[in-house]
Amino acid sequence: MLNYKITKTIFGERPKFPKPNPKFMEVIDGEKGMEALFDKFYDMISESEIAHFFPQEEEEMNLVKQRNTKYFIEFYGGTKGYSRIPDKSMDVIKMHVDFSITEKARYGWLSVVQDLLEELDIEDELKQGFWDTFESFSKWTVNRNTKTNTYEEMVKV
Ligand code: HEM
């Protein structure tokens, strides 16, 4: 059984996270599959509660989408396309510094990750691994301290 559990961020903490499993990219047909997956991810983001964080212009959004896909391919051990872009590095903190990301925004982002995984037809173990990596790693991107609530408290209101 898959467990999409979300634990609370301790502001400023950079938790260790489970390493990405290269088998994930393999079973979804490699880099081509990652492109299709993250195309979908960004389309879902545009329809989600965190859409306002992202460019509203389609062309702009497509550029972010392309860079994002390169990042995830590289993160999963594929072509080193993202870190080769001038002025870019794999540093997830730097890359989000211009955006004010709260714990609530993180929950919104993770909820899109969950929807994405639910539609994906691969074995649960690989989905769980993906979830566990990003549930934890996404804590690194939270750069605005708010009176943080737990996910359970937030969905009740
Ligand atoms: C570990 C988790 C995450 C990873 C690996 C990740 C990765 C990325 C990447 C690769 C980009 C593109 C950077 C570029 O343009 O060069 C990006 C942009 C962005 N991400 Fe994330 N992200 C994560 C979590 C989040 C979360 C939780 C939010 C919350 C809302 C978020 C909001 C954004 C925004 C607003 C942008 C920029 C859009 C723009 O350039 O206008 N990300 N992210």
Molecular structure report:
This protein has 157 residues and is mainly alpha-helical. The chain has a single domain, classed as Globins (Globin-like, Orthogonal Bundle), CATH 1.10.490. The chain contains seven helices and no strands. Helix 2 packs across helix 5 and helix 5 packs antiparallel against helix 6. 17% of the residues are buried. The mean pLDDT is 95. The structure holds protoporphyrin IX containing FE. Protoporphyrin IX containing FE binds next to helix 3, helix 4, helix 5 and helix 6.
Please describe the topology of this protein.
Elements: H1 22-27, H2 30-46, H3 58-75, H4 92-95, H5 103-118, H6 124-137, H7 151-156
This protein binds protoporphyrin IX containing FE.
Protoporphyrin IX containing FE binds next to helix 3, helix 4, helix 5 and helix 6.
Relevant terms:
7 helices; 157 residues; mainly alpha; Globin-like
Structure at a glance:
By secondary structure, the chain is an all-alpha fold. The protein has one domain (22-148): Globins (Globin-like, Orthogonal Bundle). 52% of the residues lie in helices and 0% in strands.
Rg value: 15 Å
CATH fold-level topology: Globin-like
Low-pLDDT runs of 5+ residues are none
Mean pLDDT: 95
H/E element order = HHHHHHH
* Count of β-strands: 0
Strand content: under 5%
Q: Which hetero ligands occur in this complex? A: protoporphyrin IX containing FE
Described by strand count, sense and barrel closure, the largest sheet is: none
The count of helical stretches stands at 7
How far apart, in Å, are the first and last alpha carbons?
27 Å
